[in-house]
Design goal:
This protein is globular. The strands form 4 sheets. The protein has an 8-stranded mixed β-sheet. A 6-stranded mixed β-sheet has the order 9-3-2-13-20-19. Strands 1-12-11-10 form a 4-stranded mixed β-sheet. The N terminus is likely disordered. The chain is α/β, with parallel strands linked by helices and 431 residues long. The chain contains 12 helices and 21 strands. Helix content is 36%, strand content 25%. The structure holds flavin-adenine dinucleotide and 3,4-dihydroxybenzoic acid. Flavin-adenine dinucleotide binds next to α2 and α9. This is 4-hydroxybenzoate 3-monooxygenase.
């Protein structure tokens, strides 16, 4: 790999960036804080990051802690990314990462630690005691809360996140990368040593790799999830994954006042066909299947439909472009792995860039894709397995339905099979 300049401290990098744009040094900021202040000048940083989701923001945070400068380019507004309703389950490893990097305070106050989940099927409830089986736990804490905490930490540390700045293309990836983006009606350029594409499946980073370099492995499912956020106190302390002949349902939560619920629906379903009363009726049918258990209902605050898919693109790197999170892999949400995988990818990248900027070592950077893909494929298999076990599959195939029942009964009665579910669900420390 050709060696661009390797400043030893973040301060030096920030100073170099300001030199490049002709700005005076200002303690605390890593690079020109707003594009308005750089005018036509060249903007430079060490690592250019596309996308301010959990992956891009966490990477920027980790790099800052290693004294490496970065700029995050995000197409949406801050308000939008801080309120985008998505995943809610943090694995133990993700919680540890947030705590170890100084982001544990609100998580520890507001996050809900869960030591088990319930599997509900055939009119019975079965608890999988995750902590008893693995010594580890999960924490329910909304993805948008993680995003808010990360944005606050970056901005407090003088970091630069450019919102409403869509990246349009990448160039110079073989030696001197540039992110070309629009901001406030102008075409802008960010010059960097490396680009990390954290811009999700619909981003521009992955398509910047020439045809024929990447291999895509993919599976689509004939169903989607209808998700609702409801102002209703959760009726339970732990998540319920329910298998029902009408389809899968999931009972989750965001706080002692707010429930988060999901229903399996056909892939082409229109949310307009689901007035609130129909949603509650279907949730009652699929969840009120055990004695003395009723759903708590309340006003629906938000609802939407998310298609399910499995996808991996390999390798996760090309030249000076590294790809992380949903930009290179998608899992169906049944295993609650999407956000956790995104954080695990950038934890590897944080260490790899730290090693490279410290002494020019390329070992971790070169091994990034191979190492990350081991966890990615473990999560792919687990998410596919949970999805296949819990959803209503092909209605015309009674053999498949019988296999599902056998699997559910086995995982509910065998300690070793339940341990396999639990260790994947809470997240394997090493893969
Ligand atoms: P993202 O969070 O998608 O972040 C990518 C960022 O890049 C976005 O902010 C986007 O605006 C930005 N971007 C895109 N293109 C550009 C561009 N050209 N220029 C600049 N910025 C750009 N997982 C679960 O486990 N459970 C769930 O219930 C669940 N629900 C989901 C619902 C939806 C609708 C979606 C899309 C995903 C859901 N996921 C869920 C998956 C989980 O949220 C993702 O795995 C996680 O967001 C991945 O983080 P990321 O940082 O890789 O990508
Ligand atoms: C939630 C989402 C999931 O995909 C899951 O498996 C569990 C919980 C949630 O949004 O709370």
């Amino acid at each position: 790999m050709a060696s661009p300049s390797r400043p030893s401290t973040e301060w030096k990098a920030a100073a170099a960036a300001r030199d490049a744009i002709g700005q005076a040094d200002a303690p605390g900021d890593e690079i020109a804080p707003t594009i308005a202040s750089v005018k036509e000048a060249r903007m430079r940083t060490q690592v250019g990051i596309v996308g301010a989701g959990p992956a891009g923001l966490m990477l920027s945070h980790l790099l800052h802690r290693q004294g490496i400068s970065s700029v995050v380019i995000e197409s949406r507004s801050r308000e939008y990314v801080e309120h985008r309703l998505r995943a809610g389950v943090l694995e133990q490893g993700s919680v540890d990462l947030l705590r170890e990097t100084g982001l544990g305070a609100r998580l520890d106050r507001e996050g809900m630690r869960h030591e088990g989940i319930e599997l509900r099927f055939d009119g019975e409830s079965h608890r999988v005691p995750m902590t008893e089986l693995t010594g580890r736990a999960i924490t329910v804490y909304g993805q948008q809360e993680v995003v808010k905490d990360l944005i606050a930490a970056r901005l407090d540390a003088g970091g630069t996140i450019l919102f409403e700045a869509p990246a349009e293309r990448l160039s110079g990836l073989d030696s001197a990368p540039v992110i070309h983006f629009r901001h406030q009606g102008r075409e802008e350029e960010l010059h960097c040593d490396f680009v990390v594409g954290c811009d999700g499946y619909h981003g521009i980073s992955r398509p910047a790799v020439p045809d024929g370099v990447l291999t895509t492995y993919e599976r689509t499912y004939p169903f989607a999830w209808l998700g609702v956020l409801a102002a209703a106190p959760p009726a339970v302390d732990e998540l319920i994954y329910a298998h029902h002949e009408r389809g899968f349902a999931l009972y989750s939560m965001r706080s002692p006042q707010i429930s988060r619920l999901y229903l399996q629906v056909p892939a082409d379903e229109d949310i307009a066909d689901w007035p609130d009363e129909r949603i509650w009726a279907e949730l009652r049918t699929r969840l009120e299947t055990v004695p003395n258990w009723t759903l708590n209902e309340g006003p629906i605050l938000e609802k939407g439909i998310t298609p399910l898919r499995s996808l991996v693109v390999e390798p996760m790197q090309w030249q000076r472009l590294y790809l992380a999170g949903d930009a290179v892999h998608i899992v169906p949400p049944t295993g609650a792995k999407g956000m956790n995988l995104a954080l695990a990818d950038v934890a590897l990248l944080g260490d790899a860039f730290a090693a490279w900027y410290a002494d020019g070592s390329t070992e971790l950077l070169d091994g990034y894709s191979r190492t990350a893909l081991r966890r990615v494929w473990r999560a792919q298999q687990f998410s596919w397995w949970m999805t296949s076990m819990l959803h209503r599959l092909n209605a015309d195939d009674p053999y498949e339905a019988k296999l599902q029942s056998a699997t559910l009964r086995y995982v509910s009665t065998s300690r070793s099979y339940a341990t396999s579910l639990a260790e994947n669900y809470v997240g394997l420390p090493q893969v």
